[in-house]
Amino acid sequence: MRAALLTREYPPEIYGGAGVHVEYLARELSRLVEVQVHCFGAPRDSPLVAAAYEPWDRLAGSAPHLAALRTMSIDLAMAAGVEGADLVHSHTWYANLAGHLAKLLYGLPHVMTTHSLEPLRPWKAEQLGGGYALSSFCERTAIEGADAVIAVSGEMRKDVLRAYPAVSPDRVRVIHNGVDPDEYQADQGTDVLLRHGIDPGRPIVLYFGRVSRQKGIVHLLRAARQIEPGAQVVLRAGPADTPEQAEEVRELVSDLAAHRGGVVLIEELLPRRDLVQLLTHAAVFVCPSIYEPFGMVNLEAMACGTPVVASAVGGILDIVEDGITGILVPFEPGDDAYGTPADPARFESALAAAVNSVLADKEKARALADAGRRRVVEKFSWSEIARQTAMLYRELTSA
């Protein structure tokens, strides 16, 4: 069987969890089926990559909506490029339209993995302008026409069926994201910390993720005023969805640094080895997301033996066992379109209290960390995720 994986991101151009997912899924799937990766961007050296695609030159420009049009131009080329495959598997709205078109062109089964849902991310209108209507069109068209929809968590499956009632429940399968516990394991070196001005001798409260409404970084920055003052607050934050959000975070960081020491903002993307060292030395990793289809970063922290404090939202509920592998902070969404906390101050205080409880109890922290690592190894290996995915492929191609 020849499976074409359609994705925006693939090494070395990875900026989010969906890209990490495709990287490891492709590697493990290639042991079970023939894999051909079709991705955005420059040519790759990987033997798994069949082709990489650039957007049409005539769509160049800085207007936000042009970014969506450039994506759709790549989807057209990608659909033409997968001829000869037995099945197509698309990831994120960036590649979903290509998968749908390939299904129509060649009569192929189309599998799409939902890493997030456009109707639940209305703040993207700030980022894409009218392009948000196009991204929503691409996702809706593909998800309603796909032969199978993979939801990366149980909560994501519920979200799919709520957001797209035309999708039959029997077409939506839960197959989790994963993590490689051999790559994400403790690194006791300190060179990365020292390079970024982080004191290895002081507790570290760590965040890393995009600057996005979805990720809740502004709530963590406000909560940090209540976090134990002896701890450092380290944020690997970027890229931002919009320049305005980037500026808001910089201002909050500056304000926080005026009230406490040990605030470190890292805005550049870091290689995996650097992230692993940061995770290893963190006393606690914080995931303050207000919307999180899965939350792979929590798995990465747990794999490195780091206690996790996370919002009780979305796919995080499939990962973190409250009081066993981490601490879940209750989250009540407000009634606005963005899903911001109903009571931001209460949510932020609860975040700080959970972090402080881990910082104050080393025995508790060690127990959470050990249980988290065990859960990663037992439940979230990429080999198991690839096995489940290959089984789905065989069901569809043999039907």
Explain what this protein looks like in three dimensions.
With 399 residues, this protein is of the alpha/beta class. The chain folds into 2 domains: 2-178 and 381-398, 3-Layer(aba) Sandwich (Rossmann fold); 191-379, Rossmann fold (3-Layer(aba) Sandwich), CATH 3.40.50. Helix 1 crosses helix 15 and helix 3 (93-106) crosses helix 5 (131-145). A 7-stranded parallel sheet has the order 3-2-1-4-5-6-7, with helices on both faces. Strands 10-9-8-11-12-13 form a 6-stranded parallel sheet, sandwiched between helices. The two termini are 14 Å apart. Helix 8 (217-223) links the parallel strand 8 and strand 9 (232-240). The mean pLDDT is 93. Helix content is 44%, strand content 17%.
Rounded to the nearest angstrom, the distance between the terminal CA atoms is 14 Å
Helix-strand string: EHEEHEHEHHEHEHEHEHEHEHEHEHHH
Q: Report the average pLDDT across residues.
A: 93
Structural domains: how many:
2
**CATH-level-2 architecture of the largest domain:** 3-Layer(aba) Sandwich
User: What is the number of E strands?
Assistant: 13
Structural class: alpha/beta
Shape: globular
Output the strand order for the largest sheet. 3-2-1-4-5-6-7
Number of helices: 15
Fraction of residues in helix? 40-55%
